[in-house]
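Q: Please design a sequence for this.
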């Protein structure tokens, strides 16, 4: 996380310092900074996995990962759409797709994720579950070793959690 935070800070600083240059102005610096911030937040979701899992950390990790991923992904989609609109302009006409319109489209994508996450949290939240050691077998089927190590993992109780997580990831592919 520290490396990603440092690199993100450097890039945001470079964008702010050079914001008056034409290339930075054309790349929509607000969305570039939002994208970098989303990537930093996404790397922070891994940090939530450290330590003992609780109900809050299990679902908090899911919320932080999916919202930060969606924020990064939606800013890229909106920026690509903007470039598409500008390049597919068959008539030489001035097309303006402002920051507010792009922010509105990004917000709608974020609202969709929040609704799914609220449903997931209400119906089948991810909870800490103890997993115990496993046995290893040789080729003849004899037990060669047994691990008595227990680990706590975050799992959902039914297929509903898998459905919600799949929905959060797959709708972005469409």
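A: Design:
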């Amino acid at each position: 996380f520290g490396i990603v935070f440092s690199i993100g800070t450097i890039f945001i600083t470079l964008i702010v310092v050079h914001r008056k240059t034409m290339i930075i102005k054309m790349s929509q610096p607000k969305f570039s900074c939002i994208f970098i911030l989303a990537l930093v937040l996404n790397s922070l979701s891994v940090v939530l996995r450290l330590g003992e899992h609780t109900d809050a950390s299990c679902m908090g990790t899911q919320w932080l990962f999916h919202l930060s991923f969606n924020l990064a992904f939606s800013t890229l989609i909106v920026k690509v759409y903007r470039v598409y609109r500008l390049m597919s302009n068959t008539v030489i006409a001035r097309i303006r797709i402002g920051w507010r319109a792009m922010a509105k489209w990004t917000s709608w994508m974020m609202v969709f994720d929040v609704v799914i996450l609220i449903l997931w949290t209400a119906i089948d939240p991810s909870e800490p579950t103890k997993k115990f050691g496993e046995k290893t077998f040789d080729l003849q089927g004899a037990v060669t070793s047994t691990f008595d190590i227990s680990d706590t993992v975050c799992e959902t109780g039914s297929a509903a959690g898998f459905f919600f997580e799949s929905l959060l990831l797959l709708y972005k592919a469409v």
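Q: Thanks. Anything notable?
A: The longest strand covers residues 127-131. The mean pLDDT is 81.
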